[in-house]
Amino acid sequence: MKSIPILCIALLIGCARDQTVSAQTHPERRGIELTVYADDFGMVRELRPVKLSKGNSRLIFQDVSKSLEPQSVLLSWSGEADGLPRLVSHSYDLGVDTSKELLRRYLGREVEFVRYGDSGREADRSKGRLMVSAEGDIVLQTDGKFIINPAGTIIAPAGAEMVTIPQLSLQVDSGDARDASLEIAYLTRSLSWSADYVATVSPDDNSIALECWASVVNQTGTDYPDAKVVLMAGSLNRAARQRNSDYKMSNMPATMDLSVAGAGDLGMNMPSLNGQPQAVGELQAYRIAKPADVVQGQMNRLLMIASQKVAIKKDYSSRLPSLDSYGYYNEPVGRRSRGSVQYAFSFFNRSADALGVPLPAGELRVYARDSKDSLRYVGAAGVRNTPKDARVDATLADAFDVYTEYRVTKSQKVNKRTTRKWVEVTLHNEKPAAVDVRLVQAFYGRWKLISESEKHVKRDAATAQWKVSVPAGGKTVHTFAVDLS
C-alpha cells in the first residue's frame, strides 16, 4: 500500500519582499454595498483603508469572492484627487482548496522532507526539489536521486507569492507615505436573490393578506458583514460567461442555515424597504432599509412588501377539447369525457390595496383556513414582473367538486368543405354555493357558431368563450352547434 506524505506549510516570519515592492495585507473592510441580481450574480462595492509607503507598494486584499470576475474590477481612491497614488496593475488569484492543489504549486521548487522514528520524533531532515505531484504520487529529487512516494512529511515555505485563499493584489506607486482609502467594486457570480410571495385567503374568500419576501443566497466563499443591500428586479444582458452549474440553487448544502428577518426583527411599524422601488435603466431597484449580514452558505430572507387586505376576483375555467372539421382533436360522437375545472384568482397591483409598487417576479404560495381555523396550503402560481396597476393572475389548482362532462352529440357534413358539429357540455357543482365557470373552446380552421345556449365572447381568431352559471349542488347543460371548414 502506498504511503502518502502529509503536506505541512512552514509559515515564515515577515512578508515576502523584493528590492522595490513591499507587500502589505489589508483585511479591514468598510462601507460594504451589495447590488444583487436574480440571474446568479451581483455587484460588490466596499472601501479598504490602506497605509502606503513612498514608492512602489504591493497591496493584498483578502475576503473577496471566489467567483469574482477579474475583468469587471473597478478601483478608485476615495478622497481628494490631488496627489493620489497611481494604480500600476492588479491581479486576482483564486487560491487553492486542497493540500494537493497547494502542493502542485511547489513543482520545481525546493522543499524539506522530514522522516519520523517509531517514537514519533524527528529522525532526519533533508532538502529536495519537488518533481512530481499527482494523484497518489510524490517524487522528490535530492543528492542526484529520485525519491518516489516518500514516507514522511513535506515542509514547504510560505510566502506572499503562495496564495491559499482568494485575494486581489494591486501594485501602486505613491509619491509619499500616507493613509488612503481604496474603493473596490466588482461583479461576481454565486450571489443571487429570488422573490417569494405568501398569500392567506380571508374567511369570506374575497381578499388575501399578501407578503413578498426576498431570499438572498451567498455562495461566493466570503461573508459581507453589515452590508447595505439593493435587490435588482428585471432581465438584462450580460457580457459574461454562462453561469456555472456548480452554483445553482439546487446544489445548496442540505444543512444550509436559514436566516430570517421577519416582522419582529424589522419592527411592527417599520417598512422593510427604504422608500419606493426606483427605476434604474429598465430594471427596478429595491433598497433594504437596514444593513444585513449576508453570510456565505446561508439563505437570508428579508421582508420587502406587505399588505393585509388585497381584493381578489375568483375564477373557475375549463378548456374544452379542440374542434376541427376532420375530427383529429375530439372524442368519437356520443362518447362522454370528463374534464377538470381550474380554480384561480386575480388581483390588481394598486395603491388602494396597499401595493402599487413594482412587484418582482417570483413564486406565490397560497394558504387558507379550514373549519377549525387551521392554515392549509391550497396551491401555488408564478408571478411575473408586474408594474403598478397591472393585474396578477394566479391559477392554483383543479377544483375538487366542480367538473365538466363533454360530448359531441352529432356530426354532419354540410357540403364538401364544411362539417357541422353539435356539442353538449354538462357542468357539475357540488359546492354549497353557486359558481360561474368560463368554458374555453378552441377551433382549428374557419368556424361559425350556428346556435348556442349562452352568448359567446370571441377571445381571438381561433377561440370562443362562454360564461355559464352553475347552481349550488346542481348542474347546468350548455350546448352549441358550429360549422367548421
Quaternary structure:
single chain
Enumerate the spans where pLDDT stays under 50 for 5 or more consecutive residues: 1-21, 240-271
Q: What is the strand tally?
A: 33
Beta content:
over 45%
Structural domains: how many? 3
Mean pLDDT: 80
Count of DSSP H/I helices: 2
Shape: elongated
Q: Give me the side-by-side strand order of the main sheet.
A: 30-33-28-27-24-23-29-32-31
Instruction: Classify the helix fraction into a percent range.
Output: under 10%
The profile of the biggest β sheet is: 9 strands, mixed
Class by alpha and beta content: mainly beta
Radius of gyration, whole Å? 34 Å
Ends distance: 81 Å
Provide a descriptive summary of the structure in words.
There is one protein chain. The chain has 485 residues and is mainly β. The protein folds into 3 domains: 1-189, no CATH class; 193-310, no CATH class; 313-346 and 393-484, Sandwich (Immunoglobulin-like), CATH 2.60.40. The protein has helices at residues 99-104, 263-266, and strands at residues 6-11, 22-25, 30-37, 41-52, 55-61, 74-78, 86-93, 110-116, 122-134, 137-142, 145-148, 153-158, 167-174, 178-189, 191-201, 207-218, 224-233, 257-261, 278-280, 283-287, 292-294, 298-311, 313-319, 337-348, 362-369, 375-383, 391-413, 419-429, 435-442, 447-452, 457-460, 463-470, 474-484. The strands form 5 sheets. The protein has a 9-stranded mixed β-sheet with strand order 30-33-28-27-24-23-29-32-31, with no helix packed on it. Strands 3, 4, 6, 14, 17, 19, 20 and 21 form an 8-stranded mixed β-sheet that branches. A 6-stranded mixed β-sheet has the order 1-12-8-9-10-11. A hairpin with a 2-residue loop joins strand 10 (137-142) and strand 11. The radius of gyration is 34 Å and the shape is elongated. Residues 1-21 and 240-271 have low confidence and may be disordered.
